[in-house]
Amino acid sequence: MPALPETPALPVEPVRDPYHVYLDSLTSPESRRTMRGCLDRLARLLTGDETATGAGQPWHLLRYEHTVRIRTLLTDQGWSANYVNKHLVALRRVLKEAWRLGQTSAEDFARASDLAPVRQHRLPTGQHVPPEVVGAALSACDDSPAGVRDAALIAVLYSTGCRRAEIGGLSLSDYDPAGRSLRVRGKRDKERLVYLTREAIGLLERWLAVRGGGPGALFSPIGKYGHLRTRDGRPAGMTGQAIADVLARRFGAAGASRRTAHDFRRTFIGELLDAGVDLATAQALVGHASPATTARYDRRPDKTRRDAVDRLRLPDARPLA
Predict the structure, then answer these.
(1) What is the pLDDT, as a whole number, of residue 82?
(2) What pLDDT, on a 0 to 100 scale, did the predictor assign at position 197?
(3) Report for 8-22, 115-129, 233-247: range of highest mean pLDDT
(4) 100: annotated active-site residue
(5) Catalytic, out of 100, 262, 296, 299
(6) What's the rounded Cα separation, in Å, for the pair 45 and 87?
(7) What is the predicted pLDDT for the residue at 144?
(8) Is 297 a catalytic residue?
(9) pTM of the complete model
(10) Considering 163, 164, 250, 266, which one is annotated as catalytic?
């Protein structure tokens, strides 16, 4: 009988904690941060320990009566339905990993994870960003390396409606100047192409003249003395929080109220639909999984209702005879 080949050594010790297994299964660093936060909040809610994390918790012991109670505790926090449902997704997924690891039975897993999502109708978050406000923020960007980068960043956000994590995850190789496009990796690692206006291309090219043409992140943190921060000799990427800080700083310097990346996203979708772009195209450009999500940003019904109210006239104030 021929000798069996020697089993290669595993590069790392396998982990049996469903918390770590679930987080390791996520492909996006932003998703890992988000879902780690959800599981850690669940652990603190269940234990009453403000320092608790989801690591080492007995997730495999949770049964249906426990998870129903967890759902009630989450809704009692006063959080939005979307935020509560995100925590329920994290809970279901960590329970599934406990089942996959053989720590709980298929029947117990099915029962414990059989939780209805929280239903709630709310208007989409964010506010419209007028063009003149964007122009003021661009004018607040000076000719320093950080100013040139921030102008390009604002232009890309405004002309693509990308999420801040998507912008932070872009590399130079994702940029196609001939096609005026960026290859974006969105949620669940889905790729799509977004397109830049000619004005945004001009500001982006100006930034690339500062950044240089080497491989690495498209947008990078800049140190105190104007040097790009690197990792392994390449420009490092920006976190979502760093992008939020850029917007807060530039809009504040312009004397405008605080704006977020999601405000740009809402504005982008609204402008597309106002211009007559069909819903399927708008959905593809922003990377929504469902056209119903994109439709929530449609401002046209609001205008129709506002125009209807404008036909009314409040009577003049006068006493009755």
Answers:
(1) 85
(2) 94
(3) 233-247
(4) no
(5) 262
(6) 12
(7) 95
(8) yes
(9) 0.69
(10) 163
| Residues across the chain | 321
Answer yes or no: are the C-beta atoms of 70 and 91 closer than 8 Å.
yes
- CB-based burial of residue 252 (10 Å sphere; 0-12 exposed, 13-18 middle, 19+ buried)? middle
The one catalytic residue in 187, 192, 206, 234 is 187
Nearest of 17, 37, 49, 125 to residue 87 by alpha carbon = 37
Domain coordinates of the chain in residue numbers?
Answer: 18-112, 131-303
| E-state strands within 99-215 | 175-176, 181-185, 191-195
Beta strands in the chain (DSSP E): 175-176, 181-185, 191-195, 230-231, 234-235
299 is catalytic: no
**Dihedral angle, C-alpha 60, 39, 127, 298, nearest 10 °:** -20
Question: Does 187 participate in catalysis according to the annotation?
Answer: yes
H-only helix segments in 14-80: 18-25, 29-47, 64-75
281: helix, strand or coil: helix
Active site residue 33: no
Name which of 62, 111, 115, 107 is nearest 87 in CA terms: 115
Q: Which one from 96, 185, 250, 288 is the annotated catalytic residue? A: 288
Asked if residue 6 has pLDDT above 60, the reply is no
Residue 37 CA: distances (Å) to CA of 86, 146, 220:
10, 30, 25
Radius of gyration of the chain (CA): 25
Query: Are the CB atoms for 80 and 120 separated by under 8 Å?
Result: yes
Say whether 121 is catalytic.
no
* φ, ψ (nearest 5 deg) of residue 183: -90, 115
Given a cut of 70, is residue 255 above it in pLDDT?
Answer: yes
Task: Report residue 236's pLDDT band, with 50, 70 and 90 as the boundaries.
Answer: very high
- Overall fold of domain 131-303: hpI Integrase; Chain A (1.10.443)
